[in-house]
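With this grant's support, we have settled on a layout for protein records. A representative record follows, to show the layout.
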Amino acid sequence: MDEEITRLFAVTRDLPLWEGVDLSDINASNCDGDNALHLAVGYGDLSVTRALIDAGIDINKAGDLGYTPLHVASSRGKLDMVKLLIENGADMFALNDGYPPFALARLMGHDHICDFLAPLMKQADP
């Protein structure tokens, strides 16, 4: 396993929501349904995020409240993370409890995320 992933998993094992989760599976989820990518994105750690994606983690995993990693990045205003996720196949149209990542970014006042996502969504929309 990649050194970056090993470092993340070492921290993850001590978190209450991850207690007892078998982290030998890259796609393991905690009791809320989040995978390690949700955690790496939340921490804003681009190198771990890249390593997880390269290792084959489910980039569109719906976790707590239906949030995908792209929802997490968009709602926190992390443009570099949003770009990395989109470049690797994150679903821009995924819905959590009714909102796509774009709407969460708008609600949180992250207009720079919306400015990035809007033309991509328009281009991808059939």
Observations:
- The chain has a mean pLDDT of 94.
- Residues 3-124 form a domain with the Serine Threonine Protein Phosphatase 5, Tetratricopeptide repeat fold (CATH 1.25.40.20).
- The two ends are 39 Å apart (CA to CA).
